[in-house]
Amino acid sequence: MSYAKVLSVGLVGVSGHLVEVEADLAPGLPAVVISGLPDTALHEARDRVRAAVVNSGQRWPNRRITLNFLPATLPKFGSAFDLAIAVALLGGSGELPLLPLEGVVVLGELGLDGTVRPVRGVLPMVAAAARSGVARVIVPVDNVAEAAVVPGVRVRGVDTLHRLVGFVRDAAPLIDAPTPQPRPPLSGPDLVEVAGQELGRRALEVAAAGGHHLSLVGPPGAGKTMLAERLPSILPELDDESALEVTALHSIAGLLPADGGLLRRPPFQAPHHSASVPALVGGGSGLARPGAVSLAHRGVLFLDEAPEFSRAALEALRQPLEHGRVHLARSRGGTEYPARAQLVLAANPCPCASPAGDARCECPPLTRRRYLGRLSGPLLDRIDVQVRLPALRAAELMEPGFSGESSATVAERVAAARKAAAQRWASVGCRLNAEMPGPHLRRVPWRLPARDTVDLRARLDSGSISARGFDRIIRLAWTVADLDGRVRPGRADVAEAIQLRTGEGL
Fold first, then answer.
1. Same domain? 172 vs 52
2. Residue 208 belongs to a domain
């Protein structure tokens, strides 16, 4: 037999596709030809696989070898096909009977000594195999715990090509998935550690309950960073669907913890202000990798000292914030990653960053305008909650009476508000107030009475807010009402929403 076929999986973004690895061995001068839109890493597989086969005690076929990856129109990236290539070659040469691998997906990178090394993106690969009806997969032993997260699939691990050959030829045992161990409760920053700042706490709670973006402007030491770092502690744990999405993204980026289990806590990303556009939104040659905004999917993207980021990097966030996805176009095709993250911006009011705030600012008015002007109007228009934090007083910092509620207490209210919003918007397919399309909010039965929105309408007519800002204030009003246990927002809720959006009257 001179032909063999083994199943594997290719990734484009977070979408996996079943790939058939074909090997045909024909008489002629020894050579290896690879077709099916392979990238550089896949072209180099011929040398890795040859060394691994020989060093595993198998005979390399000295014939003309053609390797093809179906579907041929789908770009193939990475080294996860190495193990499937080796098995297909040995099957085509007659060295291995491939019947035990019928309907089995094989994934893994090969070292020159025949060891099977872990690869990125195993979770979305195995999930794609399961969607295609595959019930058995073989993965590197270091990826077994990660792959076992996908329900309905039997996962086996291999550490060497020699072990896999023994399994196919002699039914030698493979490595089973470990029994999942319960994770200890996660600990982290708690809101009780934040002194004073009732305004900041309220803004944080509203942002968490509705999934709204947040901007915090204030002098150094006011608590901007402390508040932002504690936002994940008041967010609910991720449900199964969101946890799979988040875990898949971290798998592609190679950031999963060693136990490989589902990530249940909302992620928190805080890139340095020198981060480039690809670092924020994703990029790279070949298969574009997810950036910070995608790694913060269903969690928090925190930009501390936001005006220090490059203008191009900040403007690149506008489209992901609006649509919840990042589309990265490349010459060989586009890649799309989910990016529904909560953006939190923190900034000093001016470059001199006086601890006393405006009272002792040494910056000329033009300098102050230029500094915060680095945050463009279109970007800020997408930030629902925009508050200015005052400098802390000594009493707030030193006296126990100014300590606020713990994260656990606030998280209970946030969870109840999110549950109310999810039930209300279920018919529209939304879970959070921030996700609700503006046109729906302006129609019956969700349109608010004119008496409750009279102040908001006046601001729109005067041009002090945009149409986008109008919708975002309505969403904020719904969140305020949900937190306070009201079925619908009233005029007071709209007024607080206006204050949270504009900072006026706070």
1. yes
2. yes
How many structural domains compose the chain? Answer: 3
- Residue 426 in any domain: the answer is no
Secondary element (H or E) of residue 467 = helix 467-483
Q: Indicate if 377 and 491 belong to the same structural domain.
A: no
Are 21 and 65 in a shared domain?
yes
Contact between residue 261 and residue 149 where contact means Cβ atoms under 8 Å apart: yes
- Does 17 share its domain with 67? yes
pTM comes to 0.89
Are both 265 and 338 inside the same structural domain?
yes
* Residue owning tokens 């990265």: 328
Give the residue among 221, 203, 223 at the shortest CA–CA distance from 213. 203
Q: Clarify whether residues 253 and 230 are in a common domain.
A: yes
Per-residue pLDDT 10s for the chain (506 aa) are 589 999 999 998 888 999 999 999 998 888 999 999 898 889 899 999 999 999 999 999 989 999 999 999 888 988 999 999 999 999 999 989 999 999 999 999 999 999 999 999 999 999 999 999 999 999 999 999 999 999 999 999 999 999 999 999 988 899 987 776 666 666 678 898 888 788 999 999 999 999 999 999 988 888 899 999 999 999 999 998 999 999 999 999 888 887 767 899 999 999 999 999 999 998 876 667 899 999 999 999 999 999 999 999 999 999 898 889 998 876 666 788 999 999 999 998 888 776 766 667 778 888 878 888 888 888 888 899 999 988 877 666 666 655 678 999 999 999 999 999 999 999 888 999 999 998 888 888 899 999 999 999 999 999 888 888 899 999 999 999 999 999 999 999 999 999 999 876 44
Task: List the CATH number of the domain containing 67.
Answer: 3.30.230.10
**What DSSP string runs through 96-161?**
S--GGGTTEEE--EE-TTSBEEP-TTHHHHHHHHHHTT--EEEEEGGGHHHHTTSTT-EEEEESBH
Q: Does one domain contain both 406 and 440?
A: no
**Domain-embedded: residue 418:** no
Question: Both tokens of residue 312?
Answer: 């191009």
DSSP helix, strand, coil percent of the chain (3-state; round to 5): 40, 20, 40
CB 215 within 8 A of CB 345: yes
Question: Kind of pairing, strands 214-217 and 342-347?
Answer: parallel
- Residue 221 within a domain: yes
DSSP string, 245-285: HHHHHHHHTT---TT-----SPPEE---TT--HHHHHEE-S
Q: Are residues 170 and 206 in the same domain?
A: no
> 94 lies in which domain range?
3-176
